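Quick start: read one record
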Amino acid sequence: MTYTLFSNFKRMIARIKEKDKSLFGYFILYTIAGAIYPFIGVFLPKVVISELIKDNPNFMRVVIIILIFFAAFATIGFLKHMIESYCYFRIANIRVDYFNDLGMKYYYADFKYMEDPAFLNEFQNTFRTLSNHHEGLEGCLHIIFTSGAAILSIIGYIVLVSNLSWIIFVYLIINVVVNYIVLKAIKKYEYKFKDERSDLNRKINYFRNVSHDFSYGKEIRLYNMENKILHKYDQEAKKLYKMTNKIQMKDYRMNLITFLVILIREGLVYGYLVYAFVIGKIKIDDFTMYLVAIVSLATAMNNIVNDLSSYVGYNQYVTDLYKFLDRNLISNENNLPIPYDYTYEIEFKNVSFKYPNTDRYILKNFNLKIKRGEKIAIVGVNGAGKTTLVKLLTRLYDIDEGEILINGINIKEFDKQEFYKLFSVVFQEFKMFAMNVKENIALDFENIDEEKVRESLNKVSLSKKIANLPYGLNTSVLKIMDPQGVEFSGGENQKFAIARALYKDAPIIILDEPTASLDALAEQEIYEEFNELVKDKTAIFISHRLASTKFCDRIVLINNSEIEECGTHEELIKNKKYYYEMFMTQAKYYNSNNTEDEMYERN
């Protein structure tokens, strides 16, 4: 697909036609009013002076002429300004509508892009296209809207000035061409730094957010990181300042050429008009009219050149936007419907995977079959690939080799958004949203089943806590939107995560370190009710605490990208291999005074 000035123009016009056709009518009205408006100021001095230089000037007639001109000036000026102001916000709505497209593209993109700095820089460039009223896409739309009036005005000026001398017109054209070349060079030079600017802005925003985000407050204070963060922020800000200064210096040098050309133009124009008046070619009233017309023509031509160069510059960012929107960010998207079933069988067949831009395989020729309704635990040391398995199964990442099957069907065949509905997942890194309690559980704003919310909270022992809040289920969470918002502890947040999964009630349950932030008693309470929570659904439980996996039907120990041991807790203990060693090592931390046999009996 090509992205030219014309093709991008067609896409913008098509979006206006789709979203707000009335803008075309306002464009015609504005073009007519905007083309007439400047000529009132051109002809008024000539008409007035023509009356005044007569042998017997009629001052009343002069007053009437001035009043008529000013009435026309005020009426047409008001109409022009009113249309422009009214359409300004309608054009802004077209830009805002693109945010919906951009947001949908971003949030539906494969998860792998969320951890790719190159993609994040690309998104930053794209976001900049829609970031304000005066540049990027909306800048292009405003220029398109006002261009008709500007072009008609210039045509009128050209017809008028050509009656005096075509040489002046030719010189003005040369002047405009030089100005356009200079401005285009400036825009092109500025665009060359877009990736570097996006990268610096992303880093600066990160350090700015860290310094303002209260959730980092404890670490910043206890580890004396204030100066370190400010230093990193200052480093990146200085790089951005240095780059911006470099662009501005280029701008100043190039604009010096424009200034010299304008200086020469003004001298030649005024010189020629004085010469024409002295030799009697024009009268004083024509002198004033041509003077105003030539200055207005030069200004109008320079303005349209500025608009054209700006349009060309903004179009580069519009191209970034359209390329981003046209880019396929969803891998292997198919539309096979999810087969309805209460329980599902899961199989990893010869699965190999390494993260983008790395050479190390997290999993290599990995095979695992999980039966319908089976509760399976995945254990292993940090970095063994436990969480990666979850990301692959839920298609946050796609595998490099092999296949993952759900009830015998490759998961890549399913519609991804429908596929997500199969899973209730609790990750160790859990995020609360600045919404109220029930919205945080249902992850919805409408059609919330409050009774189901209460049941989910009750199952994780949070019902009393919520009942004692000022507004119960309607209490705001976090203080970002509501200064009266409630902050929950890490353990309570973890329970919220489990309650959220229970509310979704998906057929496959995945718990990735779900009790990492809970104390021992709270953890035991959750595990005692785990069978009731999961019921007879297929469930995958990931943990580094081996003592908490005993209730599972089967335990899979992953080491060095493959399954090293597999069986029930009792079987793996009896084997006295790697799982046994890990279990006993962890048990010592709970009670260092017990013998191994006593520890096993206790656990």
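The radius of gyration is 35 Å.
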